[in-house]
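Work package 3, deliverable 3.1, input record:
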Amino acid sequence: MTDTSSEFLPTSERRSRRILWLLRALAGDPMAVAATIWLLIVVLAIFTDSLSLLGGNRISLKTRNLPPFDFGQSWTLWLGADALGRPLLVRLIQAASTTIGIAVVTVLTSLIGGTLLGVIAGYFGGVVGNVIMRTCDIILGFPTLLVALFGLYLFGPSVSNLVIVLAVTRMPAYIRVARAETLEVRERLFVDAARVFGGGPKWILRTHILPSVAPTMLTLASVNLAMVMLFESGLSYLGLGIQPPSVSWGLMVAQGQGYLSSAWWLGFFPGLAVMLTTMSFNLLANWFRIVTDPSQHWRLVSRRR
Amino acid sequence: MNQPLLKVENLSRHFGSGATPVRAVDDVSFEIARGETLGLVGESGCGKTSLVRTLLKLGPATSGSAVLDGVEITKASGRELHELRRKMQVVFQDPYQSLNPRMRVDRLICEPWALHPGAVPKARWREETVRLLESVGLRAEHADRYPSEFSGGQRQRLGIARALTLNPTLLVCDEPVSALDVSVQAQVVNLLARLRRERNLAMLFVAHDLAVVRHVSDRVMVMYLGKIIETGPKQSIFSAPAHPYTQALMSAVPTPDPRLRGRRKRIVLEGDLPSPANPPSGCRFRTRCWKATSICAEQVPTLMARTPTPGLLTACHHAESEVISSQTPWNGSSS
Amino acid sequence: MALLEVTDLQVSFGTASGRIFALNGVSFSLERGEVLALLGESGSGKSVTASAIMDLVPNPPGAIDRGSIRFDGAELLQLPPNERRDLCGSRIALIFQDALAALNPVYPVGWQIAEMYRIHGRNPEGGVDKAVIDLLTAIGIPDPERRARQYPHEFSGGMRQRIMIAMAVALEPDVIIADEPTTALDVTIQAQVVDLLATIRKRSDAGMIFITHDLGVVAELADRVAVMYAGRIVETANVFELFEDARHPYSVGLLASQPRLDTDEDELVPIPGSAPNPVALPSGCAFRTRCPRAEGLCAEVIPPLETVGPGREAACHFPVSPA
């Protein structure tokens, strides 16, 4: 039934074998490969932007509202230009870092905060658990957009406030899911076994509960990325999110809304970028879930037995 | 050493509060000597799982004491409890649930050592893991795999290997073979017997399969509704039980020999198990017992020697040994 | 003519890792009034046999690839679905392994037993209600009028199992298939269920197929035994012959590895290895990887089920010699 080596390998070799295995697993899911490629492009774009390699963001009336796919122009104009003549491709790339940055930071905050609070509420229960859950209920009682509007109106529409507001309103969902999963894992026999070995709460949370809960939470996070991107664009549209001259994909979509019939590319390409990015996150999260669950590995990597 | 390894006195575990708590374990006392295997039999609802969990300190005891090697389990905490854990380990029933499916085997085996840094130095973990795997009949390469890649019998071996990592003196086996196929059960039973001999392990072997208990134990305890109703050396319990419940239990086990069909008179117990929240007064078995009389409802029978059978302690007002022989028809009398 | 005759039945399931052959050419027959035990461990295909007869194989992913099931002369696999459904349940009954799962928790027990009559449009004399009460009494439920109105969770495991048995025999079927009816039960409850089944057998001339892995129960109830391994029948024999003089190495191994209450040997003799992976069965004889008698031929040719004595068959190239 076994076909692998008969001895233990040194750690460095084990690591490279593991990486090889991960690559094989990735190849087993073509959608995940496509997602990875897209995300690599995005990362590359952000990288070049940060090194200011793109130059031309100048306003130029000559290229005002230039339609896309005109390959006679310089490569930056292949996706067209906006009302001020700025190349759309360059704007897209600049917006990428803002959009992705806000989304990732927001989701990470609510993911980490929500998971920790949920796991604590689930494992310990009692007064602490109750306090956490009732706070969740209160937050959930208010519609996200309303809270966001109030918060940003009161504290000013800065990027950090935006992140805070979005993270806090998204957190209860994570807390609830994490708590529910923790309640279930807590009762499993292997947790009892760990206690019999002498594992205290910290050990059990770290070694058994968090890893079991993590895949579900990561899937939730990836789904949330899309929602956050959309919320951010809505808020930007209302003037409470990203303020010009900073730019985000959501803001570009909102701005392009008025030009749908005349300059469709202004709203289309940013929207396409949002869609491809969120889809990629979802597909990768799905792949990640399978990779972290050993009993599902056969879906990706068929072993010759 | 004449001191018993484990001494349990008047241990109780009740659930719930108020007027009628569920008396899962009620005033239980027994001992296990070093290197001895005590079998614990009983049907569902008898409290054996609760007893195991209380002994392992997975839940608090309501009253009573359990002393392992001089340390009081019910009151131990902190460092003392941590030290105690090294001496007492467990093999659970369900091989599919007792191993974390996300952890590779080598991490699973090393977990106890990570929790007890003094036990085995980290540099030797790999070597010790291989040694343990081989001692339970697995191979070194299995350390790189995940539990889901093993069969039920192999997973149970992993559970046993893991239980031995800290070199315990007492191994609690909670129905270790019930979830396994018959041919695999035998493998695991043999393995446990061998390990026990090699390491002079004391074992508390909980099972509902009487035949398996017979093969593994030195002494046997029978539980009913939270109480021990009979205990004694294996020979005495299996060949001449005195308590009516034990007799019924023995007679109910079908023997794989078709020639005895119809010639064994089986005692079929009437009625159902009473609720542990509201057990019958006096002797708890009286509602299903064919020998019950008025005294059974008034006085709780104490566990003591009531028959000349060596070592047999019975909690019954009408204890009477019935000799069971495999060749002659079972002669359960109702006198 | 046999009451139930299964010939060369093959059932397979499509899974992500390939097609699994749960039953690989299974043939046996059941006479009236006979108790046939299908003995095997997990993965042997014994439960799939019951599902195939009762038309419970989920399709997809399962499929009956070939073979025939003849009941009282009629070919079941070719019956139109509603006729088949009518037959299964009224003339062929199935007792499930897990009584709790098979009883609907939101209906009273008496209603569920009565449902058996209603579904098949039967009208027993004296009315359905009386028949239900009689049935509950026959299986030993005290105070049946009151109990019939109670819900499944108000009964103990053993009682629920007996209620399921009652439902199965309510319509006086010709064939009763019991799928591991004693496996999840305590010993004393097992005894009650075995007794009940023995009583039913005495009182009717229904044929019974008893699916189990417990040799003790087989010894108590069965007339004939068919031992299954990896989707095939490897031995059939009369129950006395099997226990005293088994021919197939697997049967011998199974008998040797069971601990017995009446004797006290030191070591059990287990069968080495474990059940084969259904996706990757060994070539030739599926048992050869665990068999002490295996030789070269066993890896190349699948042993056919051949007669090794009057009324008994074994599928082995090198069967154990007669005792």
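Chain B has a mean pLDDT of 85.
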